[in-house]
Predict the structure.
Amino acid sequence: MNNENKIINLANDAMFKSLVRSPEARSIVLNLIQDLTQISFELLQKAEFMGGEIPKAHINEKGKISDVVVKIGTVKIILEMNQFYTKEIFDKNLQYAYAWNTRESHLDKTFLINFDAFNVFHTDKPLLDFLMRDKDEHEESKIIISYHLILENYKNSLYNISEETRTFMELLHTKATLKELKEKYKGNEVYEKLMKKIEQLTQDEKFMGYYDLEEKHKWQINDSYETGIEQGKHQNKLDTAKWMLKKKMSIKDIIDATGLAKEEITSLK
């Protein structure tokens, strides 16, 4: 099966999980984690890439699976690809982060890194980071820190992230044929290995079956989302602000993320 001329969506859930969990992407992913979390390279060398299934609290609990989980000592890093927006997506990811933290009592800290293939925060920044805060806007907990990498903003220099992280964001944002990707990253030894992994995946009929199912589901949901945007972008900002208030994020963070006025945000409480 030759898929060299098929457009490849790197934000596809099946593709993202397979790539990020692969040995070929290991150095790229660890560099990104170091860039965001400032965990030392010495500790990163001990990183363990785990299955994403969260231990159940009781036998009848519905299973929860994170996209990619990396364990470094008493720290867990959760990587979630958010290919399309739903009102539940951020809540779900945070719930999973809390679940990891409560089910494994030895953890000192959990980092949640979201890769957003949409810009629901209406920001020019490539990276947003949030701490949980109390009603007086004091930091409620440093145990869980949530990041959002806004993939479409990879070119913007409004936040101090490395060129290596930008390159990976650009790759995930890019929709191109395998042939075009191979040409684009020709001469980059690390990314050439990643291209070989993508080629291997696209030649796997079973994997491509999962990939195509994800693509079909994405367009069904995304059509609905795009229609919703056209019908009311302002309502979308209000929904985002409500979600951020629910998570006790600061008014300043919400203003930066949505562009709404302070009075409009406080009226939502």
